[in-house]
Every structure is written in structure tokens, then in C-alpha cells.
Amino acid sequence: MSSRRISIDPITRLEGHGNIEIFLDESGAVQECYFQVPELRGFEKFLEGMPVEEVPRVVTRICGVCPGAHHMAAGKAVDAVYSVTPPPAARKLRELFYCAHFVHSHIAHFYALAAADFVVGPDAEPARRNVLGVVQEVGKEVGLDVLRHRGLAQKIQATLAGRATHPVWTLPGGVSKGITEAERAEVQGMAESCVAFAGRSLELFDRAVLGNKVYLDLILSETYELSTYHVGTVDRQNRLNFYDGEHRVVGPEGQEVLRYQDAEYLEHIAEHTEPYSYLKFPYLRRVGWRGLTDGPDSGLYQASPLSRLNVADGMATPLAQAAYERYVDTLGGKPVRKLLATHWARLIEMLYAAERALELSRDPEITSPEIRVLPTATPREGVGVVEAPRGILTHHYRTDEQGLVTMANLIVGTTNNHGPICIAIRNAARRLIQPGREPDQGLLNMVEMAFRLFDPCFSCATHSLPGSMPLTVTLRGPDGARLSTLSRRGR
Amino acid sequence: MSRPRIASYWASACGGCDVALLDVHERLLELAERVEIVFWPIALDAKYADVEALPDGAIDLTLLNGAIQTSHHEAMAHLLRRKSKTLVACGSCAHIGGIPGLANLFNREQIFQAVYRDAPSVDSDDVVPLTRTETPVGALELPELHSTVRTLSQVVEVDYSLPGCPPPAERVWEALQAALDGALPPRGAVLGATDQTQCEDCPREKRELRVSSFRRIATEQPEPERCLLEQGFLCLGPATRGGCGALCQRSGVGCRGCFGPPPGVLDQGAKALGAVASVLECDDEARAAELVGEIPDPVRSFARFSIPSSLLRRRSLP
């Protein structure tokens, strides 16, 4: 058969690219669709034999965009390995650091990655569909405001932990340094500014996205809809928390189906492997693996900002609570199944993170010198779970009696969403690729939007490539022969 | 006059070096006005093809971060070398191997065993990834993993190194300014770093005390003002180039060597071992070896960031 080939980027196949393989039937309709992750680094193996107290400062290098998440999850796991509870000041400092980390990460995702699709436009020229295009669109003043506040969020982390990227701060039973009253006051000022900025970001979303019928219709369209379980972390009042709490699972209809503590994750989460991808597929053990399908009989779950807002009964801070109520009303109640609403949920989380950081920065206890409890128990085993910006993050370590790692298991934010990402891509491909319709660059971006809304970080998931991954879409005919390839680097 | 062209690219990396570039904050817009950023995958949509289409030497400055782990990384390193007047190995991974270099201690089978079989959350189907999988609709392929991790200078000629994991944003900014002002030192220099060890930047007090045993920070708390190594806590400061301002030591923990060896040192791990041995309270070598042997996980303690640039480069495995 004659091979028809459309190349946006003429490099057809590169190691390190994500691949979407779309198989067409005789009529030209989508028969099957596979998403492949072609890399793996293997931190689980690197960590064996390492003193467990070194782990939190090594796993940060899984991802330079969310090192704080891996640092916190590993830090909590190592506390558990030594059966030690950090004193209140250390716990509060960690949560404050972590809220600032969320502000940095969510700003980076929304403005640098997602906003281009909504502010510049989903079918705009690729050359303008980037963060500089966003700055052109919204103006340099807004651009500076964005860069400044991502900077403040980084500075809060650096003030607390000594460094924002690749912190070395959590130790078994606490943290390695505290803060002075002058530092606390400075952090408070920065957090106040971040609260106001997060409010402005939601106003921008209102104007640019919700106020534009085309974009609003896109969010509400069935092309981007999924009905799965959701996992997230809540406090005692079932309100969202990023650092600590119980992990709550709600069903496709929004009902609570189970709750678990960090150490119980293996009773509830299992991972399926497929030979065609280096990335595993987590699912709910109780419901079971039913393949790449959604609905109540499939154990697949989402763990994302959308999930967290579906799982929580509300937000623990006033401005975020008001934003949350408006979000739920606009989207017709819970659970929210419109995947593109994930971007909105991310901004509401940014507001919550900033408000919570401000609350904690006002607590006089955080300048206490009591920041560490020295462990005395024999090290054994521990699980640490936090909400990472991209979804729930689980670190699990076993050690020998000397505290040297004998087993490391990591289930990271993006990996949780692997199955749902595959289904979202397949659904989008099926709706967008029709017999007789020529696939083009606009189609590629519309398919890619199904992928990007999860803010997939394959640096985390495979411990390999940073940021969103480059993507190749290959269309194959009924005999498996390649019809065309659309590919493009990640952003 | 056209603006200088710059590029930034990642190989096997975590993205932290690109975040360091973002961490110049508002000055990023100033930079975007002063230069033409022709290639920066984390933020811009220029394509590989655009780079290939440029004449050789058309990019004035390329910062390449990440270790070289795949044939694709290697091809990109050659391409960017050809297209760039000045190529900088940015960050620990490109400079000395970095954390991805820990892969050189293991092979693919060991990693597969840990990730797909031994991990306690994996269900019992015993499926591992294959380079070719037949499905009802056709075959799917995966690239094979893992070649030995190399530094950038083991693959192409490098003009400068900018060390650190990640390099501090201020050092990145200064290097960019120097490049744009034509004020770079002679080729081969290490940018954004001092010619001394970490100890020169470290505010902790040294008293030339000697230690009779090593301590672990897991269960002990160092005094805040005193040299960590003299208190018996592992610190690679004496075997590591300065330039970060002793960030980790100021944060209360020992240096792990991400800035690479000081000038004149070939093997950072060997230098670290010697530095640690020199503070021991003992006169005979056998006792010194015994004390050093108490340090758990010596390879990843002394050469955490530098295995690919060490004399051995990797562990020999079947």
C-alpha cells in the first residue's frame, strides 16, 4: 500500500519520545490506540544499600520540577522507618515549605504549559503556543508578575530548607535547620503576596477561559470526559491537605468507597505491567484490573487536582473554599468528570496552598528551636505518602538493622494516572479522527491536550525525561503499516 | 546587528538545571529581549529540525545539561556541538555524571528485577517490558535500555563546565552575562565556581580536631557551628570545588560533592577517601582502613555524583 506520511517534525522515532500508536480500521476509523512510555531509570534499584537517611536528598533528583514532593514523601517514609514523630514545629515547617512548593509547581504548569492552549489558543501556530506567546497575549506586566511570584514561592522554600531545588533538609524525626523570627516575618510577607497573586490567576482564568464560549464548550465537551475512581488526601474534616492525612477513594459516582493510612497502601493499590511500556499501571486492588477501561468495574483511578477536589468535601481556607464552591456549581456538581477542568482545579489548589502557607507562616511556633526528635528505635520499614502536584505520591522503604535500604518502592503522581491518560488519549483520538478526515497539527494538539491536562511528568514517572514529554503520534492502517507520523517535542 | 543565539538542552536529567535558568526570575524577560533563544525544550516549541537546519556554528552558546545515556542523547550532543560556537556542560550530570551515573553500578536485568518483579505493589503476572510486543492490531516497539552513563566531555569536546546540582541560578546568570559580554575565561575553564574547595566557603569552624569514629546524622545531631567532618559526619567539602557557598553545610548537613573535584584532582571519590582518612585519629594504615570501612555504602558516599567521571567509570557486571 502506498505510505502516506505527515511529519511535523521529521524525526520519526526517538528514544525518549512518548509514542501514541493509533491503529485505523478499513474505513479509516480508530480501531485501537496505545500510549507508550519508552524510558526508565530505575531509582528503585539505585537506592538499595544506601543509608536510608540519605534517601530524601537523593530522590529529589527524580525530578527537578517537583523535588520538594519526593523530599517530603521520602522524609515521612524515613520517619516511619525509624518510628519517630517530628516535633510540631518541624511538622509545620515541612507543610509550609510544601505549600510554597505547590505554588511554584502550579504556577509553572499553568502559565508555562497549559495557558498557551487557552490564552493563545488550542489551534494557534505552534511557534506562538508557548510561554512567551502567553506573555505577548497577557502583557509584560502580567508576565513579570508570574515570574516574580514563582520566584517568591522558590524563595520561601529556600528560606526554610536552605535550597529550593534539591533540598537536603528533612532528617529522621524532623528537619536540619529552623528559622529565625526575621525569616518568619519575611516568609509571611511573601505568602501574603502569593495569596493575592493566586486570586489574580483565578480572575485571569475567569476572563480568558470561562468568559470565552469556545473554551468553555471545549471544557464541557464529551471529548474530554472520564468516569473513574479518584484518590486524594484529606484532613480529619475531609478537607484537602497536601502534606498529611488519610487517603480517601471515591467512586465514579462520587461516593466514598474506602480510606487508608500511608502504611496500608499495599492493601489497596496494585500495579499492572504491560510488555509494551516501561511505565506500570496502578489500580485499586479491591476492584481489580480490567484493562484500559473506565467505569465502576475497572480499578483504574485518577489522582490529580481534579481528583483531589472530587475526593475532598471542601477546602480548609476561606478564599479557596469560595473558589471551590463556584467551581462545583459551574460544573454541575460532583464528581466532576470534565477532564479539562483539571486546569481550573489546579488554580484553586494554588490559592489554597498560598493561603495555607500564610496561615502557617503566622504561627509563632514555627520559630521554635525544637525541630528534631532523635530516633532511638531500630530502623525497619516505612511508607510516606504526600499529595504531589501531579497526584498522590507513595515512597516505601525497608532497611536492615543498620538502616541500609533493602527495598525501595515508588508510586509517583503521574504513574497513578497512566491508565486514565491512555483512555483519555484514546477517547480523544476516536472522536477527533474520523473516516475521510485528514489528521493535521490541530488534531495532534487536541489529542495532546488530553495528555497535557494531567500535567504528566515523565521525569517523575520513569525517572527519566523532565517536564512534559515529547510525543510522536503514529497512524497505522489495518495491516499495521504506518500511514503517517505526527511528532513533536514536549514542552 | 542580530541578537546572539542561545540554546539549552537536556539529556538524562531531572529538569533541575532548566529550573535554575527559570530561577533568574524576572531577568528571564530581559534575557529573551537580549538574545534569541533558538532551542529550549522545557519552555519553547522550536523543533529538532530547526536546529538541524541552522548552519554549523550558528548558535553562539549552548548550555547542555544531563548525562549521556542513550543513542538519542549522543546524537543530540554531536548535533549541538556542531551547531554551537561555545558548548557548556551545565550541571553535575553533564559535568561529572551526576545521580543518573548511579546506573553504572547496576545492569538492566537488576533494574527490571527491582521495578517489575520485586516491587511489592506489582501484581503477580510477571510481565516485563519487551523491545517488541505483538498485539491483535500490530506490533509495538520499545527502545532497549540502558547503556553506560557518560559525561558530556566523554562524548564531544566541551568548552566549559558549569558545575552543581543544580548550578545556582546566580552562577548561571553570571555565566550567561560573561558569554554575552565576550568575557569568558580561556576555553576549558570551570565557570561559576572557585579554584578552591568547599571548605573555603564554609562558615563552620575548623579546629583541626581528629575523629576516632564516624557518626550518622540519622540518629545524631551535629553541633551547628563546627566542621561536620571533624565531628565525624561525612562531608565531601575537602574534595569538592567551591562555588555554591556551602549550601548543604549551611543547611546543617554534609556536602556530597555535586560541584565536582577541585582543580588538579582526577578522581573525586579517591580524593574524598583521602580527605576523610586524613582526619582520623590513628597512626597506622590498617586502623585507618578499618575506620573508613565503618562508613556504610562507600561508593555512593564518596563518589555519589562522579561515578561516570571516575577512573573506573562503572562497575564491571556480567
Task: Give the CA-based shape of chain B.
Answer: globular
Order of helices and strands of chain B: EHHEHEHEHHEEEHHHHH
Q: What percent of residues of chain A adopt helix (DSSP H or I)? A: 40-55%
Strand content of chain A: 15-25%
Q: Architecture of the domain at 85-225 and 338-374 in chain A, CATH level 2?
A: Orthogonal Bundle
What is the CATH first-level class name of the largest domain in chain B? Alpha Beta
Fraction of residues in helix of chain B:
25-40%
Poorly predicted regions of chain B are: none
Q: Roughly what is the average pLDDT of chain A, rounded to an integer?
A: 87
Rg on CA atoms of chain A, Å = 22 Å
Coarse structural class of chain B: alpha/beta
- Widest β-sheet, arrangement of strands of chain B: 2-1-3-4-7
State the largest interface.
Answer: A-B, 109 and 84 residues
Number of beta strands of chain A: 15
What would CATH call the architecture of the largest domain in chain B?
Answer: 3-Layer(aba) Sandwich
Q: Based on CA inertia axes, which overall geometry of chain A fits?
A: globular
| Arrangement of strands in the largest sheet of chain A | 2-1-14-15
Question: Can you tell me the CATH class of the domain at 85-225 and 338-374 in chain A?
Answer: Mainly Alpha
Describe the oligomeric state of these chains in a short phrase. heterodimer
Strand count, sense and barrel status of the largest sheet of chain B are: 5 strands, parallel
Quickly count the helices of chain A. 16
